[in-house]
Amino acid sequence: MSTMYPRSTYRSPSRSTTPIVVYGTSWCAASQMVHRYLDRLGIPYLYRDMEYDSAAARQVKWWTGGSFSHPTVQVGGQVLVEPSLDELDWALSRVGIC
User: What is the pTM of this model?
Assistant: First the structure.
């Protein structure tokens, strides 16, 4: 007998093992768009607000050569700077999430 899970609570093993980190700000529309998009897909991630997390801001500036670019998304070992949703989908599909 198989068990049915509501879409919002089911997590495949690949989703829980691939680290996804979103670096953004609360006032940035693009950061909020990525945040809501991952929520809608039910993909777990860590959100780091660069205004309140100075280590997160320093990390993004290091990746971007000194720019305070948001959103910046880390999917596994890949870093996406200000990605479109298509670029985010591509990165997620590369690690088997979407």
Answer: 0.80
